[in-house]
Amino acid sequence: MSETALGDAPHPARFAGVFDVYEVESTADEVRYYGEPRSDHQSVLRAVAPVFRDRGYAVSVEKNLGEFVLVATERSVGVDGFPTTNVVLFLATVATTLFAGTQWYGIDVVANPARIVEAWPFAAAVVGVLGVHETGHYVASRYHDVQASLPYFIPIPTLLGTMGAVIRMNDTLPDRESLFDIGVAGPLAGLAATVVVTAIGVTLPPVEVGALPVALGYPPLIQLIAAALGEPLTYADPSLMANPVVVGGWVGAFVTFLNLLPVGQLDGGHIVRAMFGSAHATIQRLVPPVLFGLGAYTYYFADGDSVSLWVVWGFLSLLFARAGSADPIDDSALDSPRLVVGGLTLLLGALSFTPVPLILT
User: Fold this and answer.
1) Residue 137 contacts residue 213 (beta carbons within 8 Å)
2) CA neighbours within 13 Å on the CB side: how many for 329?
3) CA distance 52 to 50
4) Residue 165 bridge partners (DSSP)
5) Hey, which of 91, 123, 231, 313 would disulfide with 202, CB 3.0 to 4.6 Å?
6) Which residues contact 310 (CB under 8 A, 6 or more apart)?
7) Which residues pair with 63 in a beta bridge?
8) β pairing state of 214-216 and 358-360
9) Could you tell me which of 83, 85, 77 has the C-alpha nearest to residue 139?
10) What is the pLDDT along the chain (361 residues), one digit of tens a residue?
11) Other C-beta atoms within 10 Å of 177: how many?
């Protein structure tokens, strides 16, 4: 096949020593190279990815019905068209967090639906912290010219109103530096937002406790912020609780801790993979037993509070580990400043941990 027939996509001759191509299919959306790899998938990907990246393509290796295929799609680091799905999910999450906020404020929206807007401080705190976290990832992705989507918020009608937000990366990572920077940017941005939201929340007046089924266990980070400002998180009057804006800070800390678990495609998995290379595989094997151990601890020593949370995350960590971690093209070691930043980020993640985050009331 000629270079002209392939358009901007690279000719198979450019990577003949790595992947022997016997057929090429080209459509408006992708170019598929059928052939035989001369080594394992990851080695093939490391060898061919720079060739495709230079021509404006992202590439992946697939196996379909016994055939190996290099699938190349045009890269675009910008936003193509109006992000309808992102906007709809964002608006839905605003709605569900507003509804969740009415429960923390004790607002009866059944009697007066218009009062839902009174829960805007809670909704702004939760959505704001999550949005800043994901924006950190997005900005770092753009800086390193890595293809990434805008944040997808996840609405769910619970006491928090959301299961968080994610961005989707569909690209090869050029080196450990880009993997580290993208992984660490979200938690650091989210933690900065957590500090601000918590500081605002603890200075706002408390609210009367409604008929909530759970109370929150505050991690050291939230307790330190409140102590630094001389503000309480609990009150002698059992009918009072901290302002629901503090819950936004709690969400930021809790999400940061979970995301910094060093497993799979989680932020912690990216950071530890970038910092320690292949040793990440050994480190992530420790995560599931630790989480199951936390479940056992809460079962025996904390009246079972949060036990289901840690058991669920134990199984999730097994799935994340099985899905694999990101592998950069250039696997050279990180520089010392990034190693220091990575260590400090993981320390902040530890300060965001509490063994009993949810207490049944």
Assistant:
1) no
2) 19
3) 5
4) 153
5) 231
6) 291, 292, 294, 295, 298
7) 68
8) antiparallel
9) 77
10) 544 456 688 888 888 889 999 989 888 788 999 999 988 888 888 888 888 888 888 888 888 778 899 998 888 777 777 889 999 999 999 999 999 999 999 898 989 999 999 999 999 999 999 999 999 999 999 999 898 889 999 999 889 999 899 988 878 889 999 999 999 999 999 999 999 999 999 999 999 876 678 889 999 999 999 999 999 999 888 888 999 999 999 999 999 999 999 999 999 999 999 999 989 999 999 999 999 999 999 999 988 889 999 999 999 999 999 888 888 888 899 999 999 999 999 999 999 999 999 888 7
11) 17
Handedness of CA 358, 359, 360, 361 (dihedral sign): negative
211 to 107, 109, 158, 241, 322: CA distances (angstroms): 11, 14, 14, 12, 41
The candidate with the shortest Cα–Cα distance to 184, out of 333, 343, 325, 324, is 343
| Vertex 282 angle, CA 279 and 283, to 5° | 90
Residue with tokens 């992102």: 86
H runs (alpha helix) in 167-306: 176-203, 220-228, 245-259, 267-276, 280-284, 287-301
Full-model pTM:
0.89
Question: Dihedral (C-alpha) 197, 188, 130, 291: value to the nearest 10 degrees?
Answer: -110
H-helix or E-strand containing 64? strand 57-64
In the chain, the amino acid numbered 330 is: D
Distance CA 221, CA 122 (A): 19
Integer Cα distance of 147 and 165 in angstroms:
17
Reading the block at residue 132, the tokens are 């800043």
Asked if 126 and 247 touch (Cβ cutoff 8 Å), the reply is yes
**Number of Cβ within a 10 Å radius of residue 303:** 12
Nearest to 306 by CA among 233, 345, 257: 257
| Residue 28: both structure tokens together | 């408006």
> What residues does 68 pair with on adjacent strands?
35, 63
